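Many introductory courses stop at the sequence. We go one step further.
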Amino acid sequence: MLHYYFGRTLLQWDDFPFLDLKLAKRLGRRVFFTLQGCDVRIAGESNRRNEVTMCRPDGCSKYRTCLAHVDVERRYLIDRILPLADRVFYLNPELGHYVPRGEFMPYASVAVETIVPEASPPRARPRILHAPSNDTIKGSPLIEAALAEVAKRHDFEYVAVRNVPHDEAMRLYRDSDLVIDQVLAGWYGGFAVELMSMGKPVACYIRDEDLRFLPVGMRAALPVLRVDPRTLVEDLDSILTRHDEWSKIGEASRRYVLAWHNPRTIAAALIRTYHDPTAPLALDTLPERM
């Protein structure tokens, strides 16, 4: 059995693409894929479909390269390679538009059970945190411009986490009251999962058109504070006026990641599909501890 990640296999030679996968299929081996985002997202289609996306000329720095040739490689992967797999999973719900026979799987990159939630002490001047790992993809200039406008009416401290050691970043995360993840991709990232596991409320742009690819229970429980880059100032204004609700949202966020981003649950579900590729990806069954 082989499980490939990020649209790659072990042998990616130009003359013999996906050679090991093709050999594995001839030998009767089961093959699985987990796709993350830009391994299969067709940039040109994302730009045409979505009014809000990082796939645009003034967004991701690789957008024009994607249009020139990378989109063709992604289409080959979708049309010729993924049909060879026994199961295909993707981590961003937008990818359901490009991989119709795939299915959504939540991130399992954070050991959520090992993180001890720490509620920040109540303070009149809340601390808002953003970690712009990639400014253009996360929409950091939009976020910071909106916060500058909102600061005219609300008193808060803004903390941007850039180029700091991991221990210092974790300290800043734990000492925050509200976290803004991103406002372009349409879904939250592993960073948001980490913060939600700490019991922090997270604000993010969630694309409504993609939510139909989520499990019904996950969609119903989604605790993320919704913001939209087209109405970002108004959205942040509203969130700040509801400061007294943040602690309950943080508690709901913690419960959400334990239920839907628990590596033990997801690993157990994957193992069941390894044994039986027709088995449903049952994410609502928590295995007994070993």
